[in-house]
Amino acid sequence: MEIPTPGLAFEQPIYELEARLQQLLRPENHRPGVEEEIRKLRRELAETMKHIYDHLSPWETVQVARHKDRPHSGDYLALVFDEFVELHGDRKFGDDRAVVCGFAKLDQRKVMVIGHEKGRTYKERTACYFGCAHPEGYRKALQKMRLAAKFDLPIICFIDTPGAYPGIGAEERGQAWAIAENMYEMSRLATPIICVIIGEGGSGGALGIGVGDRVAVLQHSWYSVISPEGCAGILWKSHEYAARAAGALRFTAKDLLDFGVIDTVLQEPLGGAHRDPHQMATRLKVYLVKTLRELSALDRTQLLQERYEKFRRMGVFLEDTAPTTADPTPT
Amino acid sequence: MKRQKRGVPEGLWQRCPGCQEIIFRKEAERRLGVCPECDYHFYVSARERIRQVLDEGTFEEWDMQLRPTDPLEFVDKKRYAERLVEEQARTGLTDAALTGTGMIRARRVAFGVTDSAFIMGSMGSVVGERLTRLIERSTAEQLPLIIISGSGGGARMHEGILSLMQMAKVSAALARFDSAGGLFISVLTNPTMGGVAASFAALGDFVFAEPRALIGFAGPRTIKATLRIELPKGFQTSEFLLEHGYIDRIVPRSKLKSEIARTIDYCGK
């Protein structure tokens, strides 16, 4: 019997049904009535999958977002776009592999794509520090985004990082400064920007390429002020409380929508994007094409005004004892 | 600090966290909270900072009616709603930032300060909103903007993603202030970390730091745990960042007011 490895614990019922289905599908097991059995099993499998994925806990969502087969930026670059021309280097220090940048064609539209990359093989994964960018990664992104604004190309950002890299070199080269400057400049780059969280939206490392006119998330992604492990380590003094922290932080797609932090949740195929990257890519493409058309209709002044107001509204506090959200100031 | 030596009235002496010397509290206070032995810069509260930097009696507080709330219904070892009440009672502040206007050597400025005693000086919705309103008002009234950061906590975990978004909100307001030609002096004090360092604190036209402050993105413990190595001596201090090109000047507390005034003067504001 084939056992998919390494599986997710909560997907165990799915693996068992899949294994039984494999058994029945073998030619030597063919006997009268087997088709009916297979049909029933397939239906059961789909229902089990739906049940599990409709009721993912926040911690299980994190595990789906980190699934080893979950599509990364590189996969969407291949599946969504007709062409991708990679552009390297930040012109200051180096070429961070945790961020990929380049021209791409979305249908007929020319765009600039920026994306975190986690890598697939062990070699790739270590080369890009598991998707944790250094300052040169954020500076590369900004340099390419400035080019995009100069040459009137819309920008698409794919966010997928556990967080910005915590290391000696990263601090020496001004990680805080790099992230701050990206938000600062992205808020005023005069070209449409669409950000999509495709897996993990880890803190400032995500926000460093996360300021745009529209922000969408794939259904089973998370986007948070801190990783569940980081939060557990600080507030509960142990990483073992990560599942509890995941619940407390309210970072699933539904929460993000409720808090007005994102505009759209893109539904994933049954059982998560990793089960059908092609279908996920198709849905993503439809969203990007439609949104780009909407944003391109706005003149630049209006675009920048609306982008400013979008982030200006964020936050929940009390004022004169009535709960309010931040009001955009009249201009 | 709890056990006092017999015969020494509480509060007359204190131990310096920098050199461990016992020093006369009055003497440290006279030196604006700086150790007379080793020049260690002690924590000073937001109110005390206002007294030190602004001309006497000129501070007028803005947006004090804003109050934090608990949108996530966040519970760790304690409910966030309870934590807020306790922190407010303990510090006398409504949240970690005070904003307003005042004079520095007879020049009117917009002034903000974060207090690291209030939930590590972390930025949630109220801190983000107060600072954004401060920046917008200094844009409208063309005032020089001074923000003194003391925030070990970065973006406040208890308000989740809403805290993270304050980084974007404040940074966007600063970009508009910049486009309008505004002057922003950012002063980093011990400690300035995480989401505060990676937003408004880093975005000054001029970035000053007090001596030997801890400043950085990732906390030293996080880095140590991730890399499993010893960190170099002086890592993430003001002096380290000056050497790497991220800070304009290291300014001792006694000179802070005059250095700010001089910079405003040079920039013709």
Structure, described:
The complex is a heterodimer of chains A (331) and B (269). Chain A is of the alpha/beta class. Helices cover 45% and strands 17% of the residues of chain A. Chain A folds into 2 domains: 9-24 and 32-55; 67-312, Alpha-Beta Complex (2-enoyl-CoA Hydratase, Chain A, domain 1), CATH 3.90.226. Chain A has helices spanning 12-25, 34-54, 58-65, 73-80, 122-127, 135-150, 168-172, 175-186, 203-207, 228-236, 242-248, 253-258, 277-296, 300-312; strands at 83-86, 99-106, 109-116, 155-161, 193-202, 214-218, 222-224, 264-266, 316-319, 322-325. In chain A, strands 1, 2, 3, 4, 5, 6, 7 and 8 form an 8-stranded mixed sheet that branches. A two-stranded antiparallel ribbon of chain A has the order 9-10. The relative contact order of chain A is 0.11. The model of chain A has no long low-confidence stretch (mean pLDDT 94). Chain B has 2 domains: 11-42, no CATH class; 43-266, 2-enoyl-CoA Hydratase, Chain A, domain 1. Chain B has 9 helices and 11 strands. In chain B, the strands form 2 sheets. In chain B, strands 3, 5, 6, 7, 8, 9, 10 and 11 form an 8-stranded mixed sheet that branches. In chain B, strands 1-2 form a two-stranded antiparallel sheet. At the A-B interface, helix 7, helix 8, helix 9, helix 10 and helix 14 of A face strand 4, helix 4, helix 5, helix 6 and strand 10 of B. Strand 9 (316-319) of chain A pairs antiparallel with strand 4 (66-68) of chain B, so a sheet runs across the interface.
The fold-level CATH name of the largest domain in chain B is: 2-enoyl-CoA Hydratase, Chain A, domain 1
Largest interface: A-B, 59 and 69 residues
Query: Please, how many domains of chain B?
Result: 2
Mean pLDDT of chain B: 94
Enumerate how many helices of chain A there are, as a single number: 14
- List low-pLDDT spans of chain B: none
Oligomer: heterodimer
Compile the SSE list and pairings:
The complex is a heterodimer of chains A (331) and B (269).
Chain A: H1 12-25, H2 34-54, H3 58-65, H4 73-80, E1 83-86, E2 99-106, E3 109-116, H5 122-127, H6 135-150, E4 155-161, H7 168-172, H8 175-186, E5 193-202, H9 203-207, E6 214-218, E7 222-224, H10 228-236, H11 242-248, H12 253-258, E8 264-266, H13 277-296, H14 300-312, E9 316-319, E10 322-325
Helix pairs in contact in A: 1-2, 3-11, 4-13, 6-8, 10-11
Chain B: E1 13-15, E2 22-24, H1 25-30, H2 46-53, E3 60-61, E4 66-68, H3 80-91, E5 97-104, E6 107-114, H4 125-141, E7 145-151, H5 160-179, E8 184-193, H6 194-197, E9 206-209, E10 215-216, H7 220-227, H8 238-243, E11 249-250, H9 256-266
